[in-house]
Amino acid sequence: MVSSNSDVIKKQIKLQASQNRVWNALTNYREFSAWFGVNLESPFVPGETTVGQITIPGYEHVKMEVEVHQLQPETLFSFYWHPYAIEPDYDYSQEQPTLVEFHLEAIEDGTLLTVIESGFDAIPAVRRDEAFRMNDGGWTGQIKNIETYLNESIQT
C-alpha cells in the first residue's frame, strides 16, 4: 500500500538523558505506565500482548492493548495497537492495527527520540481522520510527558 501524508505521524524530541535511561523509560512497563498514563499489567515481550487501563482523565474507561513487535536494545522499541480505540462498544479487532516505533539515537547532550506511528491508511474511513488527528496530538503530548518524567527522575 502506498503511504500518503495521512498515513504516518512522526515526532522527535531531544532528551537530556542517556540512551540507556530513555530506553528504560520506554521499555520498563512500570516506567512506561508512569509517563504514558496507563496501568500496564505485564512487561513488554516481543510477540506478546500487554494490556492496561488508561489513567488519563477522561479516558479511564479505555483499555490499552499493545502487541510488542521489536525490542532492539537501546535503539528500537515497537508495538502494534489500534489507534484512538476509545469506544467501549466498538470491536476494533477486525481492523488492521498501526505500528508505533520508538527510535533512539545518541546525540551530544543526550538522546534523540523519534516516534513514528504508521498504517493509518488501512483504518476504516469512518474513523481514520479522527484517529490520525487525535494520535497526532497525543504523540505531541506524550513526548513532552516522557521529557518531564526523565527530567523529574534525574532530580530524585
What does it look like?
The chain has 156 residues and is of the alpha+beta class. It has one domain: START domain (Alpha-D-Glucose-1,6-Bisphosphate, Chain A, domain 4). 31% of the residues lie in helices and 33% in strands. It contains 3 helices and 7 strands; from the N terminus they run E-H-H-E-E-E-E-E-E-H. It has helices spanning 19-27, 29-36, 125-155, and strands at 8-15, 38-40, 49-54, 63-72, 76-81, 98-107, 110-118. The chain has a 7-stranded antiparallel β-sheet with strand order 1-7-6-5-4-3-2. Strand 3 and strand 4 form a beta hairpin. Helix 1 crosses helix 2 and helix 2 packs across helix 3. 22% of the residues are buried.
